[in-house]
Amino acid sequence: MDNEPNITNELLERMTIVLENMSQKQNVELMENQELETFCKNNPQKFKGGFNPEGAQSWIAEIEKIFIAMTCADANRVTFATFMLVEEAENWWRFTKQQLEDEGRQITWEVFKQKFLEKYFPEDLQRRKEVEFLNLCQGTMSVGEYAAKFDELSKFCPYFHDRVDERSRVPSLKVD
Fold first, then answer.
1. CB under 8 Å to 115, separation ≥6 — which residues?
2. Where are the domains of the chain?
3. Is 174 left (phi over 0), alpha (psi -120 to 50) or beta?
4. For residue 137, what pLDDT band results from cuts at 50, 70 and 90?
């Protein structure tokens, strides 16, 4: 009989811990749902897929702009962005996500962006836009038109935005 109060107290303590954990989980889910609602109130565009390289890059830029405005946690970025994928793009993501999980890779926002741009804005097209930027001449364009074209194409040039990659490294010069 002396053990009954101890068992009852121990049982109550365990039940309290379980209920607190359930409450915390519900609070986290509620916060995530509120964040998703806030994200959706910013009217992000849905992305269907298909061949639209500049549309893909614009979509990523728009989504990131919303993330910055709402100070979206990194942990939620992939979930929120992929919520906006529909049709072919949604099917692509299901397959790609499964591949990444099978490889044991963590799916971060940077990993998602890399895979997304590999699919929807392949590197060869990015390089063509870069070359177009590097060869840009005013020609018959007005100064305003030239400036707009410069701004549009400059986002494709790693030399211009401190996105230095292996192609932009100059080998050290040897002086004889």
1. 96, 100
2. 38-121, 123-164
3. beta
4. confident
